[in-house]
Design brief:
about 325 residues; alpha/beta; eight-stranded mixed sheet; 13 helices; about 10% strand
């Protein structure tokens, strides 16, 4: 992308954001083909191996790649292969097993290294995803690991019910409560812990450093009725392509109590497999909870005045925005 590695210019990256099922993956691939890009998926569920259907992981193939040949970064993160989707390299997928913890701070470090690699190859980093806190941590350079854990407070919080923890967090950090995965007790506990220890909302925790990148944020704006229809169709497709079998296999291997299995789709199918509800009810609950999640995502993204909103199928407008951005004088 013509970046001068010896200068203090910020690296240019594209971020494609929006609610689930809005078409972010497709737009990312289109722009990557047009501008010689590589995609970094910012999805807190797609990092888990074997969780494919329920996370709407794009269909692709793994292959040994010339761009991944035993470097220090590869050894650190264990990424020795590239994942190609329709000819476009994707990162941020299948990083850990479902029973392993994986934090926003870990992902931020991983993504920063990937951006460096992509730029060094002369390609354009394209960030694609809907996990709001992870996106902000990367784009705005939040310091998510700065506050150490307090064992006594952590133990006290972990002994409480998830619903009570979320209610307290919502009172202390309304903005953060909008997008946090409220079904993930570990994340709610950590957010509440940091908020209590620092006296500041977890969502406001920032690094003293400046943002590292010059970013064009493109948001996909979808009519609510249309979006809900997309969600319903996606869930039906997930069921039709084997979500129940995927969850059953994961349940047999890891159980349903691990954090990764609390995500939408996995939690409801686990309840069906455990005999707690009928499959038809589980499917309806997946659709309902996904709609609620999409609504929280849009509330989060609408607060960001930097986002350039387009219609999902307006790839021409997206391309124009990228061209203007890349031709603009880099930020120092």
């Amino acid at each position: 992308m013509g970046l001068n590695r010896g200068s203090s210019m910020k690296e240019k990256i594209i971020a494609i954001v929006g609610p689930t099922a809005s078409g972010k993956t497709g737009l990312g691939i289109t722009l990557a083909k047009q501008f010689d890009g590589e995609v970094i998926s910012v999805d807190s569920r797609q990092v888990y191996k074997g969780m494919d259907i329920g996370t709407a992981k794009p269909n692709g193939k793994w292959s040994e790649s010339e761009i991944e040949k035993g470097g220090d970064i590869d050894q650190l993160f264990g990424a020795r292969k590239s994942f190609s989707v329709d000819g476009v390299v994707h990162w941020g997928i299948d990083l850990v097993s479902p029973n392993e913890d994986y934090s926003a701070a870990q992902f931020k470090e991983y993504a920063q290294n990937k951006i460096k690699e992509i730029v060094q190859r002369g390609h354009l980093p394209i960030i694609v995803g809907g996990t709001g806190m992870w996106l902000r941590a990367l784009i705005e350079n939040f310091d998510l690991a700065a506050t150490p854990s307090d064992p006594k407070l952590r133990q006290e919080l972990e002994s409480q019910r998830l619903g009570d923890l979320y209610h307290e967090y919502k009172q202390l950090d309304p903005e953060g409560a909008v997008t946090i995965d409220k079904s993930n007790k570990r994340r709610v506990v950590r957010a509440l812990e940091v908020t209590k220890l620092t006296g500041q909302p977890f969502s406001k925790m920032k690094s003293s450093q400046e943002p590292l990148y010059d970013v064009l944020e493109i948001g996909l704006r979808v009519d609510r009725k249309d979006l809900y229809g997309r969600i319903d169709n996606r869930v039906d497709e997930m069921i039709g392509t084997g979500l129940v079998d995927e969850v059953r296999s994961l349940k047999d291997k890891y159980g349903c109590e691990i954090d990764a299995m609390t995500g939408i789709g996995y939690r409801q199918v686990c309840e069906f497999l455990s005999g707690e509800e009928k499959l038809a009810d589980a499917i309806e609950h997946i659709k309902r909870d996904t709609r609620h999640y999409a609504k929280r995502q849009m509330t989060w993204f609408k607060r960001n005045e930097r986002i350039q909103w387009i219609e999902p199928d307006d790839t021409e407008r997206a391309g124009e925005l990228v061209k203007i951005f890349l031709n603009k004088k880099p930020t120092v």
